[in-house]
Every structure is written in C-alpha cells, then in structure tokens.
Amino acid sequence: MPAQAEKRVALVVGNNDYKYVPKLQKAVNDARTMGDTLKQLGFSVMIAENQNRQQFSETLLAFDKAIEPGDTAFFFYAGHGFEIAGQNFLLPTDVPAATEGQEELVRDASVLADRIVERLQNKKARTSILVFDACRNNPFERPGTRAVAGGGGLAPMTQLPEGVFSVFSAGPRQTALDRLSNDDANPNSVFTRTFAKELLQPGRNLVQVAQHTRRLVSEAAETIRHKQIPVYFDQMVDDVFLNGMAKGPDAGPAEAPQKLAALPPVSVPRIPKEDSVNAPIASFSRHNGGWTVVFSIADPALGISWRMGDGGNFRETGFIDTLDPRTRKRMPNPSIELPADAQAGTIQVRYVDTAGEMQGPFPIRFDPEAALIRDQRKILDMTATSWLSFREFNGLLIYYTHLMSYRCAIREARVGIDSAVPDKVLKMPPCDPRDPSVIPHEAQPYLKLAPQTKSVSVELTYRDGSVSEIKTFRR
Fold first, then answer.
1. Tell me: the pLDDT tens digits for 60-91?
2. In this structure, are residues 49 and 84 in contact, taking their beta carbons and an 8 Å threshold?
3. pLDDT-wise least confident of 65-74, 158-167, 211-220
4. Which of 176, 219, 335, 396 is the most exposed place for a label (fewest CB within 10 A)?
5. Residues 6+ apart with CB under 8 A from 449
6. What pTM was estimated for this model as a whole?
7. Alpha carbons 305 and 317: distance in angstroms, whole number
C-alpha cells in the first residue's frame, strides 16, 4: 500500500553562517520553507540551523530517536556539500578551510551522506526520503591556493537500498542557483522554491514530484543560460504519495489534461432511453493506410453502425467470424477505417441491443492531432526497452530510430552519455501528420559515441508536458 498511515518524521537542516568557507544566504530560509511544507503534509518536523559538527551529530541522534520501524523519514539539507572520491559530505559551519592534500580534514569534519542512509535503515524506516540542496560552488576554492581535490557538486547516489528515494538540486558537476538575477527577491533557492511547491500538489507520487521539479528548474535555469538539472534516485518498491493518492488507478500527473480523442457522451438532440453510462468509447490508431477506430461497447450488441457528423446515412460495420458467447451470434465488427486525411469531427455510433432495440446514436469526438499523439505516446510507453540500441559500424553508434518513428508524441528527447543525467538534446525532424512514422531520408537517427562509452540514459518530454522516467541502456 502507498505510504499513508505510518508516522511521518522529518529533519530539515539549513547552514548559512560558515566560519572558514564562504557564507550562504538562503540555506536557512530553504530549511524553514521545507519545514513549513512538511508540516502541511503531516510530518513532525525538527528544524536545525547553522549546525557545527557537534551540533549536527546531536541533531542526527535526536532524529534517530524519533524514528520507529515502519515510519516515513524525510531528511532535507541546504548548505555546502562536497564530493570526495565519489562520496558526498555535508559541511557543518565549522568545517576548516582545507587546501590541496587535506581531503581527510574535510572528511573528518563533515557528515557523510551515505551514513545518514545507513542510520535510517538501521531504524527500519519503511520509506526514507533524502533531499539535498547542496550542489553549490566548491567552498574550498580561494585565490592563490590549490583547492582540495573534490567537487562542489555532489556525486550520484546510485547504490541506494530498497525503500530509499533521494533528490539532488543539480546534476553531477552542476551548480545550483540561489537566484535567477539580482532582482530575484525570492527568499528561497531556485530548487527549493520549486520543490516545496510541487510537494504540495495533490495526487502526485514522489517520482512525479521529482520529474516536475526537474523540468521546471531546468527551464528556469535555461532562461539565464545556466545548466541545472535536478536528479533523483529511486529505490521505492511502491508508489509513495505525500499529499493524497491519485483519484484513480490510471490517473496521471496532475497537469493540464491532454485533449482526448474520444470523449464520453455529451448531450445530443436524441437522448437514449436509458442513461449513457454504457455508451461506446473508441480508441484510435494510425498506420500507413490511415486510421483504425475500435469501438468498445459494454452491452452485447447484435449490430453496430456509424456515420461521420450529424447528417447522412449510417453504415453497418459488418460482422467478424467470431461468436459472441453472450448472444451466441456472430459478433459485430467493432472497428472502422478512416482515411489518412480524415478531418476532425464527431463520429455518431449506434448499436442494436439483445432486445432488438436501437441504442444511440452516441457522439465520439475525433481529433486527428490529439489521437496521433495519444496513440504514439501509448506505443512509446509499451516499448521503452526499444528506445535506443547500440551498433558497432565504423565506430560505436547509438541509434534512436524508434524514437524518431514516434516523434509526433515527443516534445524533446535528451540523452546522457555515461551519465545518469540526460543533458544532450537529440535532433528530431518535425512531425508530419500526413505520414507520421516515416523518417525523412536526410534525417540522421544515430549518434557517434566514444569507443569507451558504457551506457546512455534517455528521458522524453512528451507533447503534453509530462516527463518520462530516465531509462538507461548499457552495451
């Protein structure tokens, strides 16, 4: 079951007032904002500000004591973070100003992020959520000295145990923005202001929250030509909803809904004698010859007929060589064909029930553009393992022919070469509704890769603005 009933405990830490490395301006505000947000989501929240090493340790110990087996634990940190040899360290306010060769000084004076994960595991938290808004510039860089070996950004946490979800405000080697301009008066960093708002959106699971945050932060950063793409690492077995579950099992992200190709019945001049709960619905699929429309009718039917628009004669769909076990008669053909250039309109569908009475007509909206996007999106979702493929031909190539064939459903496709962060945009020809699956002869559906490339990650932004999970393809 989604995490709903267990106790929720949170610790938020914000460090601004560093003694020996550059101070920060918004980390404490970020912690306070996240604390207020988590309280609204039913968490018991501990807020800690400007923690030196001893205080940080005591705060973590108090957090440990508050967690019981089966709880949901949320840890948020805003402040300086530093990566050394693939390990992430959270810097207390009294971390010394280390220089080249003094990596151990930083390690000993800081809090290891992986250790926080271990502590939550030891406390048997059912769900552990860790969020780091700590991907800032290297705090140890100073003029006239050589900085300690490491990075101002944080390293990916790819080896998480089951039940752990982590979010970083920026990708590896990226820096997180405090503000978008000198006129940006928002008290929070670009990441935290976005993430806190997304957490409060009802009906979204953690993955959807992270995906929406990543897209919005990335778009905001691009407005000032900065690259900041938040990343998340998911080891959840079940969906976790912090602000209510989606309304139904098929409910998607809480965005403006995509325009549907087939709508439920609306009021028409002729009202069926019974309610329209069992009115037909339709699915549309595009192929080289045009459109196939398949009607779904809940009631047993002895015949189906249709017409395009409100005038003209109805046409029978005919029958298929299958007996309907409900009627013990030949089953009416549930599908029709439309030409490739069919215009938007309303398909009127009616059927004969088992009593021999005509039901309908029922209107079904046909929007070719929306239907094409919906159909191709469905195919992409079902064939995610085929999005990319490696080939060795005069070097190493990665082909994205499959994505190009269904590009009408894609707003943007990004890949990451040997990286969990897709940061390179794939070139796609424009969608051609007249022949959507055909790839133009001048298009190049592959990328040349370095011979040592081990993996490629890919992320799709669909035409409706939703974002796919990141898929990784390995050689």
1. 999 999 999 999 999 999 999 888 877 889 99
2. no
3. 158-167
4. 219
5. 395, 396, 397, 398, 417, 456
6. 0.54
7. 6
CA distance 214 to 205: 14
The rounded distance, in Å, linking the Cα atoms of 274 and 375 is 31
Dihedrals φ, ψ of 439, to 5°?
-95, 125
pLDDT in tens, 218-257: 999 999 988 888 988 888 877 888 987 654 444 444 433 3
Q: Which amino acid is residue 221, in one-letter code? A: A
CB-based contacts of 292-299 (< 8 A; 24+ apart in sequence): 292/335, 292/336, 292/337, 292/338, 293/335, 293/336, 293/337, 293/338, 293/347, 293/366, 294/334, 294/335, 295/334, 295/335, 295/336, 295/349, 295/364, 296/334, 297/334, 297/351, 299/351, 299/353, 299/354, 299/359
Which region among 114-123, 259-268, 294-303, 361-370 has the lowest average model confidence (pLDDT)? 259-268
The C-alpha angle with vertex 430 and arms to 211 and 364, in degrees rounded to 5, equals: 75
Structure tokens at 202: 């009802």
Going by pLDDT thresholds of 50, 70 and 90, the confidence category of residue 120 is very high
Tell me the Cα Rg of the chain. Answer: 28
Q: Which residues contact 223 (CB under 8 A, 6 or more apart)?
A: 180
- Terminal Cα distance for the chain, rounded: 36
List, in sequence order, every residue forming a beta bridge with 329; answer none if it has no partner. 324
